[in-house]
Design a protein that fits this description.
This protein is mostly helical and 108 residues long. 72% of the residues lie in helices and 0% in strands. It is built from 3 helices and no strands. It has helices spanning 15-35, 41-74, 79-101.
Amino acid sequence: MSDDKPAREPIVEDARIDALEARLKVAREREEERNRPKASVADANYRSGNRVLADLLGGILGGLVIGWVIDYFAGTTPWGLLVMLFLGIVVAFRNIITAANRPPEDPR
């Protein structure tokens, strides 16, 4: 026991272990990228459907409210309501047609 050598030799890093760790790190990153949730085409269709619904309801309800206010203050019942309802529907369909002619967005 008089040796000055330690009981165990220190473990020297092996180049194969370093290469294996690097390959494992790259594989984990690729797997995380592959498993990351992506916006799908169904999500894009859902968003555009909600947009169409909002445009349609907004145009109709906006025309009704503005027409009713015009009729209430001007006393032109029912013409203000009918004219503004028609204009609201025209604006809603114009917005829907414009959105339909737009190129599709990238779902990423």
